[in-house]
Each structure stands twice: as structure tokens, then as C-alpha cells.
Write a structure and sequence with these properties.
nine-stranded mixed sheet, alpha/beta
Amino acid sequence: MTTELLLRNANLWRKGPTDVLIRDGRIVATGSGLQSAGTVEDLGGKLVIPGLIDGHAHIDKTLWGGPWVSHNSAPGLMGKIRGGQERRPELGIPSADYISALLENMIALGTTHVRTHVDVDTVMGLDAVDAVREAFKRHEGRITGQLVAFPQAGLLIAPGTEQLLEESLKQGVDLIGGLDPAGLEDDAIKHLDIVFGLADKYGVGVDIHLHDGGSLGEWQYRLIIERTKALGLHGKVTVSHGFALSSAAPAVRAELLAGLAEAGITIASIAPPGRAMPLKELTAAGVAMTLGNDGVRDLWSPFGTGCMLDRALLQAQQTGPLDEDIELALDAATYGGARVTGLADYGLDVGSVADLVVVDARNAAEAVCVRPARSLVLKAGRVVARDGSLV
């Protein structure tokens, strides 16, 4: 059965005023005066952008919709890791209910695709994988996602984790993750050998957290580039956070950017104040970058709502005040996310899958700076949210 939706009087980002005809989940025509026997939505000149993409999330940890829990983790990475492990049982996390509630809010805010890291450890095994899958199942047709099997508590320092990661890949998890091979694990070579070995064995991508800064982080960038090229994983490897790149000396940064571009390695950033990625330089070098919310209201942080326009604003505040700087941040939250996560047929061209967001703004810069309510959210041509609520 053919389904049609006509968006009349749209302001298509980078294309201008037009009507948009959607049939069977895809954009089939744009232009003035289009007609349709299906549903017609008059947008009154509102801006239409592609579906927002959260390219770095930890939705398995969320407490969204549950009790307010004061943040009291010990300082430092290991303090947060241990705090999370110790308090999970009393709070009933991972919880498919909490994850589903967060996904509902993200959908209403215009997110149509999520890449989420999911904890795999020797305490809870694959429980988080199961909970995240259940939550996505509840929102089937509204949002899509990729799961990264993530050794949050360490891999080498937590014997048995490697086997659990491999089991998750056997069960169809999309990517293999890693975490600070040197800073946390104290053996970058062995850690990366395991992670990239699993990626090669199961034909999956890699998304590795790299918080280590300075020369230690720069060295690990080089190791990741080397392994990506050796295994032919062009376009399938992402470095998340990657703080060493933003703080590197100009000559070192230029070297690393060239290596990342040659290897097809992408970047995921949460745009932390003072440590945002050099988005202009990444763009000029041809290195794709996505933005993400990281954890939302969990034991690591009480902050966040899952809004990707909020995250784009954080990036824009550190990229520059010009309209083109702000628009570049929105690009990272949309097209950059599609490149990093490998979404096919994404965007606003005829033939693209109709994952779309309608916002009451005149241009991209205003959408990021004002962050108005999402008037409509479409997933594959279906209206899934209206004025901040699911339909």
C-alpha cells in the first residue's frame, strides 16, 4: 500500500522554500505547487532539517523517568566506573523502562538515530545489551540505533571481559568498543590487538574511547591509525572524545589529521567546554565528526536531556559566532553523524529516506541558538512526534 505525505511551504535547509513530497518513506519530489492525495502538512515556512543523530550516547546507564539520584561518585574515571558498578543493583539499572523513557524524549526532540555504547562487564554480563534492545524494540519505527559493546570497567584489568565482548558480537552487536588502552589499561598494544582482532574476526566497526591527552594520547592515535590501515577498516573506525587531538601542537595536529583522513577514521565528540574538537580543521582535512550527548541523567552526570540541538550549541559556542560556524555545528549533529554511523540515503535530496525534523526557525543558525520545539519529527516518512510529544 502506497503512503504519501506532502510537506507544503517548507523551508528546506540549504535549499530554500519548497514543497516536499514523501512517498513510502522517501523524498520523491521537491518544488512549488506539488499535489498529493495523501496527508498534507502546511509548515508555514518553518525550517526542515534532516533527522538529528546522536553519535555518542550511553543510554544503558540512564535513570530518566526514575528517581532523582544525587551525584556522589568519587572523582576521576575509575571513581565513576566503580561508583556505577556499586550502585546499579539498588537502582535497578540497566532498566529497559528508563532507557525507553529517554528514547521517547530524544525522539520528541528530533533524534532519529543513535549510536550507543553499552556496558559489557563481568558483573552483569550482557544484561545492558538486552535492556537496550528491548527499549529500541518498544520504539520500533520511531528511531533506529547501533550498539557498541563497551568494556567500561576495562578489558585487560577485568579478566573474562574479552569473552563477553566476543559473545555480544556473536549475538549481533554492531561495533566493538575500547577504553583508554594506555591510561586505564596500561598496555595499549595488547588492548588494541584484542579490540581490532575482534573487529576483524566478526567484520564489525570499532568505536574507541580515548581520553588520554598529551603525547600519550597522540601515540595511541598513531596506533589506531596504523591498525585501521593494516586491517583495511577504512570508514569503520571512530575515536570518541580524543582529547589529545584538540590540545596537540599545530604540527602534530596536522600530522594526526592527515593520518585520520587517509585511514578514514572518524571522530565523535560531546563538545565539552574548553575541550571541543577543532571542527573547522577536521572539516578542512576531510575527517567526519559526529556529536553526541554521552550519558544523560545517570550515575556519571545529573545533566542532559538528550537534545542534539543543545549539543550543537555547545559545539558552536567553541567553533565561532558566525552563521557558518553555527551551521557547521548543526552539520556535525546531522550529516556528520550520518557519515560516522554509516547511514545510507540520508539527507534532504530526492531519493533520501525521509528522516526529517521541522523547527520554527528561519535558518540553521537560529535553530541552534534558539532551539525551538520540534514541530514535527518524521522517521521514514511517518510522523512520530508533534510539538514535543510522541504520536
